[in-house]
Amino acid sequence: ESKLFNGSEKDISSPSSKLTKKESLKVQKKNYREEKKRATKELLSTITDPSVIVMADWLKIRGTLKSWTKLWCVLKPGVLLIYKTPKNGQWVGTVLLNACELIERPSKKDGFCFKLFHPLEQSIWAIKGPKGEAVGSITQPLPSSYLIIRAASESDGRCWMDALELALKCSSLLKRTMIREGKEHDLNSSADSSHVSFYGLLRANNMHSGENLPEVERHHFKDQDTYSDKSDKENDHDHEESDNEGLGKSEESDSDTSERQDDSFVDPEPIDIKETTYLEQSHEELGEAGEAAQTEVVSEENKSLIWTLLKQVRPGMDLSKVVLPTFILEPRSFLDKLSDYYYHADFLSEAALEENAYNRMKKVVKWYLSGFYKKPKGLKKPYNPILGETFRCMWIHPRTNSKTFYIAEQVSHHPPISAFYVSNRKDGFCLSGSILAKSKFYGNSLSAILDGEGRLTFLNRGEDYVMTMPYAHCKGILYGTMTLELGGTVNITCEKTGYSATIEFKLKPFLGNNDSVNQISGKIKLGKEVLALLEGHWDSEVTITDKKTGVSETFWNPTSDIKQRRLPRYTVKFEEQDEFESEKLWQQVTRAINNKDQTEATQEKYVLEEAQRKSAKERKLKGEEWTCKLFDQDSITGEWHYKYADTRPWDPLNDMIQFEKDGTIQTKVRH
SMART domains, per this entry (predicted)? Predict the structure, then answer.
């Protein structure tokens, strides 16, 4: 203890070499790293040294498919190594015994059955093998939180039970004893010799028949730095180099460096995954807050087009079948537009980790509001997607080193329905839904109604947050200035926790001033009890007021600093897009609009729409039904579901990386 906390014996015994506070801290850090390195080296020695074996034998292990596989099991202090064969290694996995419990399991079959499990149903597997392997040999899938094991006979099974009990409770003592005594066993040694050595060890340490252990040995084996604390190891490496520079290049520091290099694992080979190539979005349009960015002064030429359009419609009519002029189009698809809500998906990552249900709801509401301030300059409407059109993009989370994937498809043309799916399993959330776009004409105004809902799921909690959307309202079509606003009341509800939020998007009153533009008000409730009030503007600041204390504070404000911290969006490389992906499908129309060539834009738009009508007629003549590529519709509820949805909680020891290929979101796993 004096060495660990106060420096070496020489430092203590020599009064003339008094250390300053800074130097003393350096010595303490150095001793701390040496002690940690000693523990790591001790663990590595037990894993890699063939002489350090408690038991080794063939055992049958039941996989997740309920079938049994015969595997070579090597029990070492603190870990159970599993191989396909004893000779050439073929590592399958490493079980960390420090958090495991052991119990005998009744069975009708021959032999002796027992279960090794984590009492809280967490993963029992290490993320690397004894030689730094990142991926184990292929066998049938094994459970993540437990193993059901069968020995050949009852005597063998009970011997394994005793050995595992010892390895569970006395790993530190076993490591020291076996390394010190230098037991010489090979991985190929027979089961009998392993048993003899095991019982010899029991006698040597006077622990047979469950005698009391010293308190220090009852602690579970906690040092998992070798397997999981990569950042800590890298930080220690940096600190050691800086400390060595401050203390001088002594022989001791040189030997430390060489030992550290010898003890480190070999870096695993890079994961070979064929995934879609994404490129960072080069240009993004962000309209200014307030009414100015939502108004459009229509030229005389375009006014005549509007009058021509109005001759086709009457008040109350649905505009979904009306061909709109291209001058009001935003040069991107509606499927792309729906992705605007995920530039702050990191708020959902934070919400997934939030333990308090009320704070979790507040973070969800904050994320919901963050999707509205991104708007084009002027009054613009995105393209109506073509049936079968798809759109893919993703956002990279630098803090969690994860990715949020967005997949959308136009699943119906009449009525126009867009289905979407968002997934970030590593951060613990996914979101799915479908939107039926309707348009209503009221004479001098029209409304674009987004009928449908989104369902946000926190995978580790089994919580669903169901939410609706406001409608877009355009006024000033015949007279006045054309202005776009958001209106309606939206709800966000979580049935499991009982929390809900209601937000009203308010239209500007007839005699309202500039401050009354884009106003919202809302409530956060638990059951019927109102907990907080929301007030502000959906494109600028929103405040929250605690109902009990009356204290108000800023809840959300998309300042320039917040906008700079938006997650970068990545879209699929143009060359890898198929013909029905939004960017490639609408490329000619987009180019014409950007070149301000409305005539060409109208012609190219007509070509796409005419091709869609022709395909629909051909299917009708043949009696064929349209089949969606990425989504299926529930025949009972009518809801649309992503075909490749994976809503399992992320397993950090088994799940390696989430990626996307050809519209399917997949996970690379270790076992």
Answer: PH (SM00233)
